[in-house]
Amino acid sequence: MLDTCKPKSACNLPFVYNKKINTAGTSNADVPLADPGMYQLDITLRRGQSLAARDRGGYNLMKKLKKSQLSTLKGTSDPYVKFKIGGKEVFRSKIIHKNLNPIWEEKACILVEHLREPLYIKVFDYDFGLQDDFMGSAFLDLTQLELNRPTDVTLTLKDPHYPDHYLGIILLSVILTPKEGEHRDVTMLMRKSWKRSSKFQTQSLRLSDVHRKSHLWRGIVSITLIEGRDLKAMDSNGLSDPYVKFRLGHQKYKSKIMPKTLNPQWREQFDFHLYEERGGIIDITAWDKDAGKRDDFIGRCQVDLSALSREQTHKLELQLEEGEGHLVLLVTLTASATVSISDLSINSLEDQKEREEILRRYSPLRIFHNLKDVGFLQVKVIRAEGLMVADVTGKSDPFCVVELNNDRLLTHTVYKNLNPEWNKIFTFNIKDIHSVLEVTVYDEDRDRSADFLGKVAIPLLSIQNGEQKAYVLKNKQLTGPTKGVIYLEIDVIFNAVKASLRTLIPKEQKYIEEENRLSKQLLLRNFIRMKRCVMVLVNAAYYVNSCFDWDSPPRSLAAFVLFLFVVWNFELYMIPLVLLLLLTWNYFLIISGKDNRQRDTVVEDMLEDEEEEDDKDDKDSEKKGFINKIYAIQEVCISVQNILDEVASFGERIKNTFNWTVPFLSWLAIVALCVFTVILYFIPLRYIVLVWGINKFTKKLRSPYAIDNNELLDFLSRVPSDVQVVQYQELKPDPSHSPCKRKKNNLG
Questions:
Q1: How far lies 461's CA from each of 226, 588, 654, in Å?
Q2: Among the four residues 272, 470, 540, 721, which has the most C-beta atoms within 10 Å?
Q3: Where are the transmembrane segments (predicted)?
Q4: Residues 732, 733, 739, CA angle at the centre, nearest 5°?
Q5: Are strands 251-254 and 467-474 parallel, antiparallel or unpaired?
Q6: Which stretch of DSSP H or E encloses residue 701?
C-alpha cells in the first residue's frame, strides 16, 4: 500500500502513496515480528496542504462539485489529526483554527506491538457540539519503514465514499526503532487517556505533580455589544436587518436581529472562555438577515485580546472591513480558575482545609464580594451500567460530557465496554443557581460524529449533597428513558443572597446552537400549550360574567358583597398582599397533603408524540411533505412557533411560581411581595412613582452603556415551563441498579 523512496541522496522526494511503485531500500516487511512493545515509532506531524473546506457548507457542496471545480470552493476548516493503531487512538493533535494549510510540528512517541497493524491517520474539522466533519484519511504501512532511519512521508487524504475527490495531503517525519523488551517513554502514548478533551482544549487533563488541579481556561472575556453606526444598506429600502456573530476558537455567539436600521442599538453581553495565556483573536462579522435566502455580509473586524490589559473595561470602536460602518464594544478580561477536572483521589470537599475555604468563600458574611461568584459545584462521574450498544461488535466506546451553561468538560473514552468506569471529579463555578447540570453519554465513532447514548438534566436546586445516585438516562428530548443508568455524586455549595440577587438579572446565553427547526408536531404542541393558558383567562371571564348574570344567586350575592368591601377599602398595597396570600395558601395545601392537583400529562404525551413523529420523519422522507409544502414561508412559521412557545411558557411560569414548582423561587417571591406590601403601605404612591421616574430618566446619564433588563421577566425566566418540568423529572431506576443491590450481588 505504501511505497518507500530510495535514500534522499538518490531520490529527494518524500513518502507517497502509490501502489504501482515497488519499494526500494531495506524494509522490515520480512523481519519476524518481535515481542509486543519491542518497537518505538517516533512521529513528527509536520503540516497539511490544500485540505478540504468543511465550514460554510463546504462539505455538502463538495459532494456536488467535480474535481476541476473544487478549487473554486470557498470556505475554511479547523483541522486536527488522529493517529490510530489496531482501532485504538494513540495520539490526537491540537486544533488549528481557520486554516487549510495548517502547521502542527507536534511529536508523538508510540509503542507498537504488531508492525502488520498499519497506522491509520484521520483528519477532522472541529465543530463545537461534537459534530466534527470528516476531512479524509490515509494509511501508513509500518512494514515498509526502514529501521533506525528518519523518513519523510507524504500521505494523500482520501474519502472512501468519494474516492475521486482531492482532499489534500499530510506531511510526516517518522522513525521506527526496535526496543529490547523495554517499555520506555510512554508519555505521548498516555494521550489516549484524554483523547476526547482536545476538542475543547489542547492541554492534557491528567493531574500534574505541581498543580493539584489542571485548569481548563485561564480567564473570561466579557463582551458587551453596544451599537452599530452607519452600517451598509443591504436591502432595497436603503436599510438593513443587522446582527453580529462572534467567534473565539470554538466558542460562538450570535446577537439578536435589529430590523430596518443602519444604527442598531443591541446592548447585549456575552462571555467567552480564554484558553491561551497570551490571549487570542475574536473574529466579529456583521450580517443582514434575509428571509428565505442567504444572509448578506455587511463587514468584519477583529479584537486582539493580547493587546488589552486585564481587569479593566475597554471601549472599542471598530471599523468594519470589507464593508461600511463601525461597531462599538466594551471588552473586559478577568482571571478565572474555577473549573477543573481530576481523578477521584483528589477531592476538594474531602480535604478539610479546602472544604472550610470553600464554605468561607460562600458564607453569608461575604455577600457583596464578587456577586458573580454564586457557588461551587462538584460532580463525581463514577460509572455507567447497561448502556446502549452502538457498534457492530455489540459494544460501545462511551465517554461522558458534563455541561453547566457554557462550561463543558469531558471524561476519557472507555473502549468496548457497556459498563464503563470513569471515576472523575469535575468542579464548576456557579454563576446562576437556577442553572441545569447536563450529563450526556456518547459513543466515540471512528469516521463519524459521536453517537448519542443517553442524557440527564439535573437542576442544581434539586441536588442532594453527597448522595451517590443512579440516574436513568433519557433520550435527546429528555422525555423518556433510554437504555442504561449513570452513577453520579454531586455537591452544591452556594450563597443564597447572591443567588437571589443574580435571579433578577438576565440569564447567561448559551453558545450558538442549532437553528430552530420547523415541526408540525412542535407547532401543534405550542399552540395547545398557549390555548390552555388563554382558556384559563377565558374561564375566569366566564366565571365573573356568571356572577353578573346571577346564574347562582348565593355565589353572585357573595361576589357583590366582596366587590363593595374591596372597592370601598382598596389600597394599592393589597395587590401584592393578595398574591402573597395565594402563595401562602398553596404552600399550606402542599405541606398538609391536601393539594389534589396532579401534573398535567398533556405536555408529556405531546413530547412523546413529537419524538415518535421525529422518528417517523427520519425513517420515511415521504412523510415530510408537510414541511416541503410550506418551505417558502418557513421563516414565518418558525416565528409563529417560537412566539407560541414564549407566550405559553410565560403563562406556565407564572402558574408554576404559585404552585411551588421551585420552592427557592417561591420563597423569593414571598420575600419580594412582603417588601412591596410594606413599601406600598407606608410610602405614598406619588413618592414611589417619582423615584421610579427619576431612575429611568437618569439611567442613561449615569451609565450610558448599561444593558436594559426587566427584573420581573428575569425572575420568571428562571421558573421552568411545563415542558422543562417534564424534561427535568428524575426517572426511577430499576431496583437492580441500586448500589446496595450491586454490592450484595458482588458479595454473592
A1: 34, 21, 19
A2: 272
A3: 557-590, 664-692
A4: 130
A5: unpaired
A6: helix 685-702
What's 236's DSSP letter? T
Cβ contacts of 309 within 8 Å, gap of 6 or more? 333
- Local structure of residue 460 (DSSP, 8 states): G
Distant-in-sequence, close-in-space partners of 183: CB < 8 Å, separation ≥ 6: 37, 111
SS3 of 9, please?
A: coil
Q: How far apart are the C-alpha atoms of 496 and 680, rounded to whole Å? A: 26
β-sheet bridge partners, residue 327: 228, 318
Q: Which three cell numbers stand for residue 409?
A: 468538560
Cβ proximity of 145 and 71 under 8 Å: no
Q: Which amino acid does the sequence have at 691?
A: V
The rounded Cα 406 to chain-centroid distance in angstroms is 5
Under 8 Å between Cβ of 276 and 263:
no
Q: Which letter does DSSP use for residue 471 in this model?
A: E
Could you tell me the pLDDT band of residue 748, with boundaries at 50, 70 and 90? very low
CA distances from 586 to 115, 376, 402, 559, 659 (A): 72, 32, 36, 22, 7
User: If DSSP codes are grouped into helix, strand and coil, which group holds residue 556?
Assistant: helix
Q: From the CB of residue 486, how many other CB atoms can be counted at a distance below 10 Å?
A: 27
What is the layout of strands, in order, in the sheet containing 169-178? 103-112, 39-49, 169-178, 151-156
Residue 454 CA to residue 472 CA, distance in Å, equals 9
Nine cell digits for residue 163: 474516492
The span from the CA of 71 to the CA of 165, in Å, is 11
DSSP 339: -
Length of the chain: 748
Q: Worst-scoring range by mean pLDDT, 437-446, 699-708, 730-739?
A: 730-739
Confidence tier at 126 by pLDDT (50, 70, 90)? confident
pLDDT of residue 318: 92
C-alpha 247/C-alpha 551 separation (Å) is 64
User: What is the bridge-based pairing of β-strands 103-112 and 39-49?
Assistant: antiparallel
Strand segments, DSSP code E, in 141-264 are: 151-156, 169-178, 214-215, 219-229, 242-248, 251-254
Residue 471 main-chain phi, psi, to 5 deg = -100, 125
Dump strand ranges (E) for 182-293: 214-215, 219-229, 242-248, 251-254, 265-274, 281-288
Instruction: State the Cα angle at 73 between 67 and 74, rounded to 5°.
Output: 165
Q: What are 173's three cell numbers?
A: 517525519
Q: How far apart are CA 342 and CA 38, in angstroms?
A: 32
- Return the higher-pLDDT residue of 623 and 202: 623
Q: Is 746 a residue whose pLDDT tops 50?
A: no
Question: What is the distance between the alpha carbons of residues 445 and 316, in angstroms, rounded to a whole number?
Answer: 44
Q: Report helix angle 663-682 to 574-591, nearest 10.
A: 150
Cα 116 to Cα 27: distance, rounded to the nearest angstrom: 13
Q: Which residue has the higher pLDDT, 80 or 199?
A: 80
Question: For residues 396 and 69, what is the distance between their CA atoms, to the nearest angstrom?
Answer: 39
As given in the structure block, the three cell numbers for residue 692 are 421610579
Whether the model pTM is above 0.70: no
Cβ–Cβ contacts within 10 Å for residue 282, how many? 22
Write down the mean pLDDT value for the chain: 76
Nearest to 441 by CA among 490, 401, 408: 401
Dihedral angle of Cα 585, 725, 462, 484, to the nearest 10 degrees: 150
Q: What angle do CA 397, 399, 404 make, to 5 degrees?
A: 160
Beta strands at 481-494 and 436-443: parallel, antiparallel or unpaired: unpaired
- Residue entry with cell 502542527: 104
Question: DSSP label at 15?
Answer: B
Residue 684: count of CB within 10 angstroms of its CB? 10
**CB of 493 closer than 8 Å to CB of 362:** yes
Cell of 200: 475543547
Which triple of cell numbers denotes residue 315? 471601549
